[in-house]
Design goal:
This protein has helices spanning 4-9, 15-28, 43-59, 82-108; strands spanning 119-124, 127-134, 142-161, 169-173, 176-178, 180-182, 186-194, 202-219. It is of the alpha+beta class and 220 residues long.
Length: 220
Amino acid sequence: MTNPALSANLPATDATLQLIKTLLAGVLTIGLPVGAAKESGGNLDTIAAKISAAATALAGTLEVSATALPLPSGAAKEAGGNLDTIAAKISATAAAQATGNAALGAIATPFAAATSAAVSGTQSGPGTTIVGPFTPNLTRPIHIEAVGSGGAAGTVQVMRSIDGGVTKNGLTAAGATWASFTAANGVIANEPVWSPTSALEIFYVVLTLTAGSVTAELFQ
């Protein structure tokens, strides 16, 4: 005879408890004295109560979760614990980021607008005009723009001086003349030609024409 309480109290979904249920159910089918199964407080009632209590106890251990097994109170705030260590690393990373941002700001500073004053001038017809002096910001490229019209002919040459303009010398690169252009109609030059490194350097554009007109400018 099988006690109905046995089936009602055991969770059939748990393999271990199911095994216990099966084994005990087999035992309970052994012939017992007439009326034993219905005896108030008898063997079967006692066994069923024990099984129910065991099932309840085992059910509480089947699943493990943060809710079922909470950490000790205050563990998250343990001095020197994992969270404190992580917080310290985050703080250090934030400080490093701030330092990096400051460095990037410093790198961007050289790309601010130049403070040097551009110079420009025009030669029309045969003759020579010296445009300048141009006093540059150091280490920033010097740019020339020259435009001809009216059948411009002649030369446009950038020159450098380190004695206040008393002596003017043409630029060279690898021993060859540099930054000297042939005058013509349209754009004659529009490019960087030099990067000054000495505070003594000043620059000029010499416009020497046989015809037409040329306007030139030096700037940074």
